[in-house]
Specification:
By secondary structure, this protein is mainly alpha-helical. It is built from ten helices and two strands. Helix 8 runs antiparallel to helix 9 and helix 8 (143-154) crosses helix 10. InterPro entries: Rhomboid_2.
């Protein structure tokens, strides 16, 4: 078994599952059927009001992005979410703190950021900052969880690397920000909230959870 799979089996399995679902949704389902599934799992205000658990869990099964249009900003976002957020950051958390704590952090970021920005979205719609279509729009995927994992994984990096990845976690969501009225789009705000949650979670893990042996240098025998 490759070293990466042996050291991060839960992350490797989840990553493979996400890729499989992405291919099936894009190739095996008709566009109308895929759109219907994506609309049901979207964590928009309407779905959070009618089936919050289903939309929050269902959203964890999908990557909202492209793996083929490599010349687009959407592809860069997918690489950051899937490759860095899951493939590196979540794997690092799994190695250092175990799969339960790693995926607990991921889930807390996904659910926490979604629920924390929901009242703001409602407020912004009420004041005309966002169009009313946002209430029922497409908004699914793992990116908030991946962003939380990325921020959490930066906390115990060496100082120079920690500074770089902290700035990266805060800056990349702003790269594609769209300002509607006085505030940026809710996805940008959601990713910044997810990063803030990740920094807090990372500090809690660093102070309360001893790192697993996988990241501890072995003594010479």
């Amino acid at each position: 078994m490759p070293s990466s799979l042996r050291r991060n089996p839960a992350t490797a399995g989840y990553l493979a599952f996400l890729l499989l679902v992405h291919v099936v949704a894009g190739q095996a389902l008709s566009p109308d059927r895929a759109d219907g599934v994506h609309r049901w799992v979207s964590t928009n205000l309407e779905n959070l009001g009618t089936h919050p658990v289903g939309s929050l869990i269902g959203s964890l099964l999908f990557v909202n992005g492209t793996l083929t249009r490599f010349w687009t900003l959407e592809f860069i976002g997918t690489v950051i979410t899937l490759g860095i957020g899951v493939g590196w950051a979540l794997a690092r958390l799994e190695r250092r703190h175990g799969p339960i704590r790693a995926f607990g952090a991921f889930l807390l970021g996904h659910v926490g950021a979604t629920l924390l920005i929901a009242p703001f979205i409602a407020y912004a719609i009420h004041h005309g900052w966002y169009p009313d279509t946002v209430r029922t729009g497409l908004d699914y995927g793992i990116s908030y969880g991946a962003q939380t994992a990325l921020a959490a994984a930066t906390v115990d990096l060496p100082k120079r690397a920690r500074v770089f990845w902290t700035l990266f976690a805060l800056a990349w969501p702003l790269g594609g920000a769209e300002f509607v009225g006085p505030v940026p789009d809710f996805n940008t705000i959601g990713h910044l909230v997810a990063a803030a949650l990740g920094f807090v979670i990372g500090m809690a893990l660093r102070h309360k959870t001893p790192a697993l042996r996988a990241d501890v240098p072995r003594r010479a025998r």
